[in-house]
Amino acid sequence: MGNKKIHRVPADQSLAARRKRFYEDGGCPIHGVAMGQSDGWYDNDPWGPYTIISCGRNGCPVEARAFSPEGPWDLLPEYAYLIEDETIEHSR
Ligand SMILES: [Zn+2]
């Protein structure tokens, strides 16, 4: 007991900071660390083959598509709100 790992969360959780962590580094928008491949490769997308990467830190559910190990990356739709401008979200 008492050995549960806790991953630190960056203090800056602004949309700009989250976008930078995700789009520039392929990291989790919340935790800012690289996400690991958690699935096989799919080839049914017009953008090309992709796989699924996920965070998992502190039980973090964030998942994204990765079109190569160096990106581009695309958050799954259910997590897109993490990096979306609220004004866009509210205008739907
Ligand atoms: Zn995370």
Give the N-terminus to C-terminus distance in angstroms.
Answer: 46 Å
Number of strands: 4
Report the portion of residues in β strands: 15-25%
H and E string: HEEEEH
Structural class: alpha+beta
**Largest sheet entry:** 4 strands, antiparallel
**Are there runs of 5+ residues with pLDDT below 50, and where?**
none
Strand order of the largest sheet: 1-2-3-4
| Mean pLDDT, all residues | 89
State the helix count.
Answer: 2
Helix content: 10-25%
**Structural shape:** globular
Rounded to an integer in angstroms, the radius of gyration calculated over CA atoms is 14 Å
Bound molecules: zinc ion
Polypeptide structure, described:
This protein is of the alpha+beta class and 92 residues long. It contains two helices and four strands, in the order αββββα. The protein has a four-stranded antiparallel β-sheet, with no helix packed on it. It is globular and about 35 Å long. The chain binds zinc ion. Zinc ion (ZN) binds at residues 28, 30-31, 55, 57, 60, 62.
What can be said about this structure in brief?
The chain has 92 residues and is of the alpha+beta class. The protein has 2 helices and 4 strands.
Give the key terms.
92 residues, alpha+beta, 4 strands, 2 helices, four-stranded antiparallel β-sheet, globular, binds zinc ion
Topology of this protein?
Layout: H1 15-25, E1 36-42, E2 50-54, E3 63-66, E4 73-75, H2 86-90
Antiparallel strand pairs: 1-2, 2-3, 3-4
Bound molecules: zinc ion.
Zinc ion (ZN) is lined by residues 28, 30-31, 55, 57, 60, 62.
